[in-house]
Amino acid sequence: MADDSSSLGGTGGPPSGIDTSGGSSGGAGTMGGPPTAPEGFVIPPKCPQYYPAYISLDRVAKADCGFDPDILIECIILVFMILLFVPPLILYLMNRQNALIKYRRPRDVFIGGIISGLNAILSPIIRMTGIKCIFNTWFVSSLIFSFMFLTFSRYVKTYYMQRLSIFKLKFSSRKAKKELYKKETSNKNNQGSDTVKSKESETLSTIKTSSIAIDSNNIPSTFSNEYSIDNSFDIQDPILYFKKLNNIINKKITIYFVIIPIIILTCYYTYITVISWNPDNGPGMLDPCPNEIKNLSYPKRIFNAIIMICSVYMLYQIYYVQKWDKELKIEYTSFIIVLFICMITMECTTKGVFGPGLITYRVYIFQSFSIVIQVMCVIVPLIKIFLNRFKDQEGKLTEEEFLAKLAVPTFREQVREISTKTFCIENLLFFTAHWDLMNIVIQHYSKKGNGNSSDFPSFSSSDVLHRNTLNPILYKPFDPIFKPKYEQLYSFYIKEDGIAAVNINSSTIKIIEEQMENDNYSYLMFSQAAEEIGELLYSNIYPRMNL
Protein backbone atom coordinates (compact mmCIF):
# COMPACT_ATOMS: atom_id res chain seq x y z
CA MET A 1 0.00 0.00 0.00
CA ALA A 2 1.29 3.43 -0.87
CA ASP A 3 2.42 5.70 1.92
CA ASP A 4 0.32 8.67 0.86
CA SER A 5 -2.89 7.20 2.34
CA SER A 6 -1.98 8.84 5.65
CA SER A 7 -4.86 9.94 7.85
CA LEU A 8 -7.72 9.59 5.37
CA GLY A 9 -8.25 5.99 6.22
CA GLY A 10 -5.35 4.39 4.38
CA THR A 11 -3.38 1.42 5.72
CA GLY A 12 0.13 2.61 4.90
CA GLY A 13 2.88 3.92 7.18
CA PRO A 14 3.43 7.35 8.63
CA PRO A 15 3.27 10.48 6.52
CA SER A 16 6.50 11.46 4.79
CA GLY A 17 8.90 13.47 6.89
CA ILE A 18 7.98 11.75 10.17
CA ASP A 19 10.86 10.17 12.03
CA THR A 20 9.80 6.86 13.50
CA SER A 21 13.12 5.90 14.97
CA GLY A 22 13.41 5.42 18.68
CA GLY A 23 9.83 4.29 19.27
CA SER A 24 9.33 1.49 21.75
CA SER A 25 6.80 -1.27 21.83
CA GLY A 26 5.35 0.05 25.01
CA GLY A 27 3.56 2.88 23.30
CA ALA A 28 5.20 5.60 25.35
CA GLY A 29 7.99 6.17 22.86
CA THR A 30 11.32 7.76 23.67
CA MET A 31 12.48 11.29 23.68
CA GLY A 32 13.76 10.80 20.14
CA GLY A 33 10.53 9.86 18.31
CA PRO A 34 6.72 9.57 18.29
CA PRO A 35 4.85 6.96 20.33
CA THR A 36 4.20 3.57 18.82
CA ALA A 37 1.25 1.25 19.22
CA PRO A 38 1.19 -1.06 22.25
CA GLU A 39 1.90 -4.70 21.58
CA GLY A 40 -1.17 -6.43 20.20
CA PHE A 41 -3.01 -3.16 19.47
CA VAL A 42 -4.82 -3.24 16.12
CA ILE A 43 -5.90 -0.02 14.43
CA PRO A 44 -9.25 -0.40 12.59
CA PRO A 45 -8.53 -0.79 8.88
CA LYS A 46 -10.48 2.32 7.81
CA CYS A 47 -8.64 4.55 10.31
CA PRO A 48 -5.21 6.21 9.86
CA GLN A 49 -2.72 3.38 10.27
CA TYR A 50 -0.04 5.63 11.66
CA TYR A 51 -0.47 5.28 15.43
CA PRO A 52 0.28 8.92 16.43
CA ALA A 53 -2.21 10.11 13.80
CA TYR A 54 -4.81 7.62 15.08
CA ILE A 55 -4.49 8.57 18.74
CA SER A 56 -4.72 12.25 17.81
CA LEU A 57 -8.28 11.68 16.55
CA ASP A 58 -11.07 12.70 18.89
CA ARG A 59 -13.59 10.22 20.25
CA VAL A 60 -16.14 10.78 17.48
CA ALA A 61 -13.63 10.48 14.63
CA LYS A 62 -12.23 7.24 16.06
CA ALA A 63 -15.71 5.76 16.34
CA ASP A 64 -16.64 6.75 12.79
CA CYS A 65 -13.49 5.50 11.07
CA GLY A 66 -13.71 2.25 13.02
CA PHE A 67 -17.37 1.71 12.19
CA ASP A 68 -18.28 -1.62 10.65
CA PRO A 69 -22.02 -1.72 9.88
CA ASP A 70 -24.18 -4.48 11.28
CA ILE A 71 -26.13 -5.30 8.13
CA LEU A 72 -28.99 -6.99 10.02
CA ILE A 73 -29.57 -4.00 12.31
CA GLU A 74 -29.35 -1.51 9.45
CA CYS A 75 -31.80 -3.58 7.36
CA ILE A 76 -34.27 -3.72 10.24
CA ILE A 77 -34.03 0.06 10.64
CA LEU A 78 -34.49 0.52 6.88
CA VAL A 79 -37.63 -1.63 6.76
CA PHE A 80 -39.01 0.13 9.84
CA MET A 81 -38.45 3.58 8.29
CA ILE A 82 -40.09 2.57 5.00
CA LEU A 83 -43.17 1.24 6.80
CA LEU A 84 -43.32 4.26 9.09
CA PHE A 85 -43.19 6.89 6.33
CA VAL A 86 -44.35 5.56 2.96
CA PRO A 87 -47.82 4.01 3.58
CA PRO A 88 -48.94 6.69 6.10
CA LEU A 89 -47.96 9.53 3.76
CA ILE A 90 -49.94 7.94 0.93
CA LEU A 91 -53.00 7.59 3.19
CA TYR A 92 -52.49 11.13 4.48
CA LEU A 93 -52.52 12.48 0.93
CA MET A 94 -55.72 10.56 0.21
CA ASN A 95 -57.43 11.96 3.34
CA ARG A 96 -56.05 15.51 3.19
CA GLN A 97 -59.56 17.01 2.90
CA ASN A 98 -60.78 15.31 6.06
CA ALA A 99 -61.88 17.66 8.85
CA LEU A 100 -59.22 16.25 11.19
CA ILE A 101 -56.43 17.06 8.72
CA LYS A 102 -57.26 20.00 6.47
CA TYR A 103 -56.85 22.76 9.11
CA ARG A 104 -53.31 21.56 9.99
CA ARG A 105 -51.72 22.86 6.79
CA PRO A 106 -51.60 19.38 5.20
CA ARG A 107 -49.43 20.52 2.29
CA ASP A 108 -46.62 21.54 4.65
CA VAL A 109 -47.06 18.37 6.70
CA PHE A 110 -46.89 16.22 3.56
CA ILE A 111 -43.77 17.98 2.21
CA GLY A 112 -42.14 17.69 5.64
CA GLY A 113 -43.03 13.99 5.74
CA ILE A 114 -41.39 13.40 2.35
CA ILE A 115 -38.22 15.24 3.41
CA SER A 116 -37.89 13.47 6.77
CA GLY A 117 -38.85 10.14 5.18
CA LEU A 118 -36.12 10.42 2.55
CA ASN A 119 -33.60 11.24 5.24
CA ALA A 120 -34.72 8.36 7.46
CA ILE A 121 -34.67 5.82 4.60
CA LEU A 122 -31.34 6.97 3.13
CA SER A 123 -29.45 6.93 6.46
CA PRO A 124 -29.21 3.11 6.85
CA ILE A 125 -28.51 2.74 3.12
CA ILE A 126 -25.56 5.15 3.37
CA ARG A 127 -24.21 3.34 6.42
CA MET A 128 -24.43 -0.07 4.73
CA THR A 129 -23.00 0.95 1.36
CA GLY A 130 -20.34 3.41 2.56
CA ILE A 131 -21.44 6.30 0.35
CA LYS A 132 -19.01 9.21 0.35
CA CYS A 133 -19.24 12.02 2.90
CA ILE A 134 -19.92 14.64 0.25
CA PHE A 135 -23.29 13.00 -0.44
CA ASN A 136 -24.04 12.72 3.27
CA THR A 137 -23.20 16.39 3.74
CA TRP A 138 -25.02 17.93 0.80
CA PHE A 139 -28.05 15.71 0.62
CA VAL A 140 -28.87 13.85 3.82
CA SER A 141 -27.84 16.55 6.31
CA SER A 142 -29.61 19.15 4.18
CA LEU A 143 -32.80 17.09 4.35
CA ILE A 144 -32.91 16.98 8.15
CA PHE A 145 -32.19 20.72 8.38
CA SER A 146 -34.86 21.52 5.79
CA PHE A 147 -37.34 19.38 7.72
CA MET A 148 -36.61 21.29 10.93
CA PHE A 149 -36.95 24.65 9.16
CA LEU A 150 -40.21 23.64 7.51
CA THR A 151 -41.72 22.16 10.69
CA PHE A 152 -40.92 25.17 12.85
CA SER A 153 -42.16 27.57 10.16
CA ARG A 154 -45.44 25.63 10.05
CA TYR A 155 -46.03 26.32 13.73
CA VAL A 156 -45.10 29.98 13.30
CA LYS A 157 -47.66 30.16 10.47
CA THR A 158 -50.20 28.54 12.77
CA TYR A 159 -49.56 31.27 15.33
CA TYR A 160 -50.24 34.00 12.76
CA MET A 161 -53.22 32.15 11.32
CA GLN A 162 -54.69 32.05 14.82
CA ARG A 163 -54.14 35.80 15.10
CA LEU A 164 -55.87 36.27 11.76
CA SER A 165 -58.80 34.09 12.81
CA ILE A 166 -59.24 36.02 16.08
CA PHE A 167 -58.92 39.30 14.18
CA LYS A 168 -61.77 38.34 11.83
CA LEU A 169 -64.05 37.52 14.74
CA LYS A 170 -63.19 40.60 16.78
CA PHE A 171 -63.39 42.87 13.75
CA SER A 172 -66.87 41.53 12.99
CA SER A 173 -67.89 41.98 16.61
CA ARG A 174 -66.65 45.57 16.65
CA LYS A 175 -68.47 46.36 13.40
CA ALA A 176 -71.71 45.05 14.89
CA LYS A 177 -71.31 47.08 18.08
CA LYS A 178 -70.52 50.26 16.15
CA GLU A 179 -73.61 49.80 14.01
CA LEU A 180 -75.69 49.10 17.12
CA TYR A 181 -74.50 52.39 18.59
CA LYS A 182 -75.48 54.16 15.36
CA LYS A 183 -78.93 52.62 15.58
CA GLU A 184 -79.47 53.78 19.13
CA THR A 185 -78.28 57.29 18.25
CA SER A 186 -80.51 57.33 15.19
CA ASN A 187 -83.54 56.26 17.23
CA LYS A 188 -82.95 59.08 19.73
CA ASN A 189 -82.70 61.66 16.95
CA ASN A 190 -85.96 60.47 15.40
CA GLN A 191 -88.07 60.52 18.56
CA GLY A 192 -90.01 63.67 17.52
CA SER A 193 -90.72 62.55 13.93
CA ASP A 194 -94.06 61.47 12.55
CA THR A 195 -95.04 57.82 12.38
CA VAL A 196 -94.19 57.27 8.70
CA LYS A 197 -90.70 58.78 9.05
CA SER A 198 -90.14 56.83 12.22
CA LYS A 199 -90.98 53.56 10.49
CA GLU A 200 -88.74 54.36 7.52
CA SER A 201 -85.91 55.37 9.81
CA GLU A 202 -86.34 52.22 11.86
CA THR A 203 -86.24 50.06 8.76
CA LEU A 204 -83.11 51.76 7.43
CA SER A 205 -81.45 51.61 10.78
CA THR A 206 -82.33 47.95 11.23
CA ILE A 207 -80.83 47.10 7.87
CA LYS A 208 -77.64 48.94 8.80
CA THR A 209 -77.27 47.33 12.18
CA SER A 210 -77.67 43.82 10.87
CA SER A 211 -74.36 44.57 9.23
CA ILE A 212 -72.01 41.75 8.65
CA ALA A 213 -72.80 39.56 11.28
CA ILE A 214 -72.88 39.23 13.57
CA ASP A 215 -74.81 38.28 16.34
CA SER A 216 -72.78 40.43 18.67
CA ASN A 217 -75.17 39.90 21.55
CA ASN A 218 -74.14 36.26 21.66
CA ILE A 219 -70.44 36.95 21.86
CA PRO A 220 -69.53 36.28 25.48
CA SER A 221 -68.25 39.17 27.56
CA THR A 222 -65.16 37.14 28.43
CA PHE A 223 -64.18 36.75 24.81
CA SER A 224 -61.79 39.69 24.77
CA ASN A 225 -59.98 38.18 27.74
CA GLU A 226 -59.86 34.73 26.23
CA TYR A 227 -58.59 35.82 22.84
CA SER A 228 -56.66 39.03 22.44
CA ILE A 229 -54.95 40.94 19.68
CA ASP A 230 -52.44 43.21 21.34
CA ASN A 231 -54.72 43.22 24.39
CA SER A 232 -57.32 45.34 22.61
CA PHE A 233 -58.74 46.13 19.22
CA ASP A 234 -56.99 49.43 18.60
CA ILE A 235 -56.18 48.69 14.97
CA GLN A 236 -56.56 51.95 13.05
CA ASP A 237 -56.60 50.36 9.58
CA PRO A 238 -58.12 46.83 9.69
CA ILE A 239 -57.70 46.33 5.94
CA LEU A 240 -53.99 47.08 6.15
CA TYR A 241 -53.65 44.87 9.23
CA PHE A 242 -55.41 42.01 7.42
CA LYS A 243 -53.15 42.34 4.38
CA LYS A 244 -50.10 42.49 6.62
CA LEU A 245 -51.03 39.25 8.38
CA ASN A 246 -51.76 37.54 5.08
CA ASN A 247 -48.40 38.67 3.71
CA ILE A 248 -46.63 37.30 6.79
CA ILE A 249 -48.41 33.95 6.51
CA ASN A 250 -48.05 33.50 2.76
CA LYS A 251 -44.61 35.01 2.11
CA LYS A 252 -42.50 36.36 4.94
CA ILE A 253 -42.46 33.26 7.15
CA THR A 254 -41.31 31.11 4.24
CA ILE A 255 -38.61 33.65 3.35
CA TYR A 256 -37.28 34.22 6.88
CA PHE A 257 -37.72 30.74 8.35
CA VAL A 258 -37.03 28.51 5.32
CA ILE A 259 -35.34 30.21 2.36
CA ILE A 260 -32.82 32.42 4.21
CA PRO A 261 -31.72 29.63 6.61
CA ILE A 262 -31.23 27.26 3.67
CA ILE A 263 -29.13 29.88 1.84
CA ILE A 264 -26.97 30.37 4.96
CA LEU A 265 -26.68 26.60 5.35
CA THR A 266 -25.63 26.23 1.71
CA CYS A 267 -22.85 28.76 2.21
CA TYR A 268 -21.70 26.98 5.36
CA TYR A 269 -21.77 23.57 3.63
CA THR A 270 -19.64 24.99 0.82
CA TYR A 271 -17.10 26.18 3.38
CA ILE A 272 -17.12 22.79 5.18
CA THR A 273 -16.70 20.97 1.86
CA VAL A 274 -13.60 23.00 1.01
CA ILE A 275 -11.84 22.67 4.38
CA SER A 276 -12.81 19.01 4.78
CA TRP A 277 -11.95 17.84 1.30
CA ASN A 278 -8.62 16.37 2.42
CA PRO A 279 -8.21 17.00 6.19
CA ASP A 280 -5.22 16.13 8.34
CA ASN A 281 -7.31 13.85 10.53
CA GLY A 282 -10.77 12.36 10.32
CA PRO A 283 -12.73 11.43 7.19
CA GLY A 284 -12.60 13.63 4.12
CA MET A 285 -15.38 14.41 1.68
CA LEU A 286 -14.40 11.50 -0.58
CA ASP A 287 -14.30 8.99 2.28
CA PRO A 288 -17.30 7.07 3.57
CA CYS A 289 -18.80 8.40 6.81
CA PRO A 290 -21.54 6.61 8.73
CA ASN A 291 -22.52 9.84 10.51
CA GLU A 292 -22.43 13.48 9.53
CA ILE A 293 -19.15 15.35 9.87
CA LYS A 294 -18.74 16.88 13.30
CA ASN A 295 -18.54 20.46 11.98
CA LEU A 296 -22.05 20.11 10.55
CA SER A 297 -23.49 19.98 14.07
CA TYR A 298 -22.71 23.65 14.81
CA PRO A 299 -25.51 25.24 12.74
CA LYS A 300 -27.88 22.60 14.12
CA ARG A 301 -27.03 23.69 17.66
CA ILE A 302 -27.56 27.35 16.78
CA PHE A 303 -30.91 26.71 15.11
CA ASN A 304 -32.08 24.50 17.98
CA ALA A 305 -31.14 27.21 20.46
CA ILE A 306 -33.17 29.76 18.47
CA ILE A 307 -36.19 27.42 18.49
CA MET A 308 -35.93 26.92 22.25
CA ILE A 309 -35.74 30.66 22.91
CA CYS A 310 -38.70 31.38 20.62
CA SER A 311 -40.69 28.58 22.22
CA VAL A 312 -40.92 30.40 25.54
CA TYR A 313 -43.08 33.03 23.82
CA MET A 314 -44.84 30.47 21.61
CA LEU A 315 -45.89 28.26 24.52
CA TYR A 316 -47.24 31.30 26.37
CA GLN A 317 -49.34 32.22 23.33
CA ILE A 318 -50.47 28.65 22.72
CA TYR A 319 -51.66 27.90 26.25
CA TYR A 320 -52.65 31.26 27.73
CA VAL A 321 -53.39 33.80 24.99
CA GLN A 322 -54.51 32.17 21.75
CA LYS A 323 -55.44 28.83 23.35
CA TRP A 324 -54.77 26.63 20.35
CA ASP A 325 -56.70 23.56 19.35
CA LYS A 326 -55.90 20.59 21.61
CA GLU A 327 -54.23 18.52 18.86
CA LEU A 328 -52.02 21.42 17.79
CA LYS A 329 -51.05 22.07 21.41
CA ILE A 330 -49.95 18.45 21.80
CA GLU A 331 -48.08 18.58 18.48
CA TYR A 332 -46.05 21.66 19.30
CA THR A 333 -45.34 20.63 22.89
CA SER A 334 -44.12 17.23 21.69
CA PHE A 335 -42.02 18.98 19.03
CA ILE A 336 -40.23 21.06 21.68
CA ILE A 337 -39.80 18.28 24.24
CA VAL A 338 -38.40 15.77 21.74
CA LEU A 339 -36.11 18.36 20.19
CA PHE A 340 -34.75 19.24 23.63
CA ILE A 341 -34.21 15.55 24.51
CA CYS A 342 -32.42 14.96 21.18
CA MET A 343 -30.13 17.94 21.81
CA ILE A 344 -29.16 16.73 25.29
CA THR A 345 -28.75 13.13 24.14
CA MET A 346 -26.53 14.17 21.23
CA GLU A 347 -24.29 16.29 23.46
CA CYS A 348 -23.96 13.49 26.00
CA THR A 349 -23.28 10.93 23.28
CA THR A 350 -20.47 12.89 21.62
CA LYS A 351 -18.87 13.39 25.04
CA GLY A 352 -18.88 9.63 25.66
CA VAL A 353 -21.44 9.63 28.49
CA PHE A 354 -23.29 6.63 27.03
CA GLY A 355 -20.17 4.73 25.98
CA PRO A 356 -18.59 4.20 22.55
CA GLY A 357 -21.42 2.03 21.18
CA LEU A 358 -24.00 4.81 20.82
CA ILE A 359 -21.54 7.19 19.15
CA THR A 360 -21.53 5.19 15.93
CA TYR A 361 -25.36 5.25 15.88
CA ARG A 362 -25.76 8.92 16.78
CA VAL A 363 -27.16 9.70 13.33
CA TYR A 364 -30.38 8.08 14.52
CA ILE A 365 -30.75 10.35 17.56
CA PHE A 366 -32.35 13.12 15.54
CA GLN A 367 -34.24 10.50 13.53
CA SER A 368 -36.33 10.07 16.68
CA PHE A 369 -37.35 13.71 16.23
CA SER A 370 -38.59 12.95 12.70
CA ILE A 371 -40.35 9.81 13.93
CA VAL A 372 -42.27 11.66 16.66
CA ILE A 373 -43.39 14.41 14.25
CA GLN A 374 -44.47 11.76 11.74
CA VAL A 375 -46.49 9.96 14.41
CA MET A 376 -48.09 13.11 15.86
CA CYS A 377 -48.86 14.93 12.59
CA VAL A 378 -49.58 12.07 10.18
CA ILE A 379 -50.27 8.75 11.89
CA VAL A 380 -52.39 9.92 14.85
CA PRO A 381 -54.88 11.86 12.63
CA LEU A 382 -55.12 8.82 10.33
CA ILE A 383 -55.87 6.55 13.31
CA LYS A 384 -58.62 8.93 14.47
CA ILE A 385 -60.12 9.03 10.98
CA PHE A 386 -60.08 5.23 10.86
CA LEU A 387 -61.69 4.87 14.31
CA ASN A 388 -64.39 7.45 13.49
CA ARG A 389 -65.59 5.25 10.66
CA PHE A 390 -66.48 2.53 13.14
CA LYS A 391 -68.21 4.76 15.68
CA ASP A 392 -71.87 4.22 16.36
CA GLN A 393 -73.74 6.50 13.94
CA GLU A 394 -76.92 6.39 16.03
CA GLY A 395 -77.73 9.83 17.36
CA LYS A 396 -75.57 11.58 14.79
CA LEU A 397 -77.08 14.85 13.56
CA THR A 398 -77.94 15.27 9.92
CA GLU A 399 -76.75 18.42 8.15
CA GLU A 400 -80.22 19.95 8.46
CA GLU A 401 -80.37 19.19 12.19
CA PHE A 402 -76.90 20.61 12.68
CA LEU A 403 -77.73 23.86 10.90
CA ALA A 404 -81.02 24.14 12.77
CA LYS A 405 -79.18 23.88 16.10
CA LEU A 406 -77.13 26.94 15.21
CA ALA A 407 -80.13 28.90 16.45
CA VAL A 408 -79.27 27.68 19.97
CA PRO A 409 -76.77 30.15 21.50
CA THR A 410 -74.78 27.53 23.46
CA PHE A 411 -74.48 25.31 20.40
CA ARG A 412 -73.48 28.24 18.19
CA GLU A 413 -70.85 29.30 20.74
CA GLN A 414 -69.33 25.83 20.60
CA VAL A 415 -69.21 26.03 16.82
CA ARG A 416 -67.65 29.50 17.06
CA GLU A 417 -64.92 28.29 19.39
CA ILE A 418 -63.97 25.35 17.16
CA SER A 419 -64.15 27.50 14.02
CA THR A 420 -61.76 30.03 15.53
CA LYS A 421 -59.25 27.39 16.57
CA THR A 422 -59.39 25.61 13.22
CA PHE A 423 -59.03 28.82 11.15
CA CYS A 424 -62.45 28.82 9.47
CA ILE A 425 -64.34 31.38 11.56
CA GLU A 426 -65.24 33.27 8.38
CA ASN A 427 -67.58 30.41 7.44
CA LEU A 428 -69.68 30.85 10.58
CA LEU A 429 -69.60 34.64 10.28
CA PHE A 430 -70.85 34.56 6.70
CA PHE A 431 -73.50 31.96 7.45
CA THR A 432 -74.87 33.99 10.38
CA ALA A 433 -74.63 37.25 8.41
CA HIS A 434 -76.66 35.76 5.54
CA TRP A 435 -79.18 34.26 7.95
CA ASP A 436 -79.48 37.61 9.74
CA LEU A 437 -79.92 39.54 6.48
CA MET A 438 -82.70 37.22 5.25
CA ASN A 439 -84.65 37.86 8.45
CA ILE A 440 -84.10 41.61 8.13
CA VAL A 441 -85.65 41.49 4.66
CA ILE A 442 -88.63 39.49 5.95
CA GLN A 443 -89.00 41.83 8.92
CA HIS A 444 -88.93 44.85 6.61
CA TYR A 445 -91.88 43.57 4.57
CA SER A 446 -93.68 42.40 7.69
CA LYS A 447 -93.64 45.92 9.16
CA LYS A 448 -94.41 47.47 5.80
CA GLY A 449 -97.48 45.28 5.34
CA ASN A 450 -98.64 45.48 8.96
CA GLY A 451 -99.15 41.74 8.93
CA ASN A 452 -99.01 39.23 11.77
CA SER A 453 -95.71 37.49 12.42
CA SER A 454 -97.38 34.19 11.52
CA ASP A 455 -98.02 35.57 8.05
CA PHE A 456 -94.29 36.22 7.61
CA PRO A 457 -92.40 33.14 8.88
CA SER A 458 -88.76 33.85 9.70
CA PHE A 459 -85.77 32.44 7.88
CA SER A 460 -84.33 29.58 9.95
CA SER A 461 -80.67 28.57 9.94
CA SER A 462 -81.47 25.36 8.05
CA ASP A 463 -83.57 27.03 5.36
CA VAL A 464 -80.54 27.27 3.05
CA LEU A 465 -81.24 23.61 2.29
CA HIS A 466 -84.89 24.28 1.29
CA ARG A 467 -84.95 27.11 -1.19
CA ASN A 468 -88.13 25.80 -2.80
CA THR A 469 -90.11 26.26 0.42
CA LEU A 470 -88.78 29.64 1.52
CA ASN A 471 -90.88 32.59 2.53
CA PRO A 472 -92.42 34.07 -0.67
CA ILE A 473 -91.19 37.51 0.41
CA LEU A 474 -87.66 36.51 -0.55
CA TYR A 475 -88.80 36.07 -4.16
CA LYS A 476 -90.14 39.62 -4.38
CA PRO A 477 -88.42 42.19 -6.63
CA PHE A 478 -85.30 43.53 -4.99
CA ASP A 479 -85.70 46.76 -3.03
CA PRO A 480 -82.67 49.06 -3.63
CA ILE A 481 -82.73 49.97 0.07
CA PHE A 482 -80.91 46.68 0.72
CA LYS A 483 -78.26 47.14 -1.97
CA PRO A 484 -75.56 48.66 0.31
CA LYS A 485 -75.91 45.75 2.68
CA TYR A 486 -75.57 43.16 -0.09
CA GLU A 487 -72.50 44.97 -1.40
CA GLN A 488 -71.04 44.95 2.09
CA LEU A 489 -71.69 41.23 2.46
CA TYR A 490 -70.00 40.63 -0.89
CA SER A 491 -66.96 42.80 -0.09
CA PHE A 492 -66.41 41.23 3.28
CA TYR A 493 -67.09 37.53 2.59
CA ILE A 494 -67.33 36.77 -1.15
CA LYS A 495 -64.73 39.00 -2.79
CA GLU A 496 -61.41 37.24 -3.24
CA ASP A 497 -59.40 39.69 -1.13
CA GLY A 498 -62.16 40.30 1.43
CA ILE A 499 -61.16 40.37 5.11
CA ALA A 500 -63.16 37.20 5.79
CA ALA A 501 -63.41 35.68 2.31
CA VAL A 502 -65.04 32.24 2.41
CA ASN A 503 -64.01 29.19 0.43
CA ILE A 504 -66.80 28.60 -2.08
CA ASN A 505 -66.85 27.37 -5.66
CA SER A 506 -65.47 29.77 -8.25
CA SER A 507 -68.62 29.26 -10.34
CA THR A 508 -70.74 30.48 -7.42
CA ILE A 509 -68.59 33.61 -7.06
CA LYS A 510 -68.82 34.25 -10.80
CA ILE A 511 -72.63 34.09 -10.78
CA ILE A 512 -72.82 36.53 -7.85
CA GLU A 513 -70.39 38.96 -9.46
CA GLU A 514 -72.31 38.85 -12.77
CA GLN A 515 -75.54 39.69 -10.94
CA MET A 516 -73.88 42.64 -9.24
CA GLU A 517 -72.23 43.92 -12.43
CA ASN A 518 -75.57 43.76 -14.26
CA ASP A 519 -77.38 45.33 -11.31
CA ASN A 520 -79.55 42.22 -11.22
CA TYR A 521 -79.78 41.90 -7.46
CA SER A 522 -82.11 39.41 -5.76
CA TYR A 523 -82.69 38.58 -2.11
CA LEU A 524 -81.49 35.01 -2.64
CA MET A 525 -78.35 35.83 -4.65
CA PHE A 526 -76.14 34.53 -1.81
CA SER A 527 -78.21 31.39 -1.14
CA GLN A 528 -75.95 29.02 -3.07
CA ALA A 529 -72.91 30.37 -1.23
CA ALA A 530 -74.69 29.97 2.12
CA GLU A 531 -75.63 26.38 1.23
CA GLU A 532 -72.00 25.54 0.39
CA ILE A 533 -70.79 27.14 3.62
CA GLY A 534 -73.44 25.26 5.62
CA GLU A 535 -72.10 22.03 4.17
CA LEU A 536 -68.53 23.05 5.10
CA LEU A 537 -69.58 23.85 8.66
CA TYR A 538 -71.22 20.47 8.98
CA SER A 539 -68.35 18.48 7.46
CA ASN A 540 -65.50 20.41 9.11
CA ILE A 541 -66.87 21.41 12.52
CA TYR A 542 -69.41 18.78 13.50
CA PRO A 543 -66.91 15.84 13.56
CA ARG A 544 -64.84 17.80 16.10
CA MET A 545 -67.68 18.65 18.46
CA ASN A 546 -68.17 16.96 21.82
CA LEU A 547 -71.92 16.72 21.70
Descriptive overview:
This protein has helices at 51-55, 59-65, 71-94, 106-129, 133-189, 195-210, 223-226, 238-275, 297-321, 326-350, 356-359, 367-388, 399-404, 409-421, 425-449, 483-494, 506-517, 527-540. With 547 residues, the chain is mostly helical. The chain folds into three domains: 1-56, no CATH class; 71-162 and 241-387; 398-544, Orthogonal Bundle (Regulator of G-protein Signalling 4, domain 2). Helix 5 packs antiparallel against helix 6 (195-210). The longest helix is centred in the N-terminal third of the chain and has 57 residues, at 133-189. The protein is elongated, with a radius of gyration of 33 Å. It starts with 50 loop residues before the first helix and ends in a 7-residue tail after the last helix.
Blueprint (SSEs and pairs):
Elements: H1 51-55, H2 59-65, H3 71-94, H4 106-129, H5 133-189, H6 195-210, H7 223-226, H8 238-275, H9 297-321, H10 326-350, H11 356-359, H12 367-388, H13 399-404, H14 409-421, H15 425-449, H16 483-494, H17 506-517, H18 527-540
Helix pairs in contact: 3-4, 3-12, 4-5, 4-12, 5-6, 5-8, 5-9, 6-15, 9-10, 10-12, 14-15, 15-18
- The end-to-end distance, rounded to whole angstroms, is 77 Å
Calculate the mean pLDDT score and round it.
78
Contiguous low-pLDDT stretches (5 residues minimum) are 1-13, 15-30, 190-233
Oligomeric state: single chain
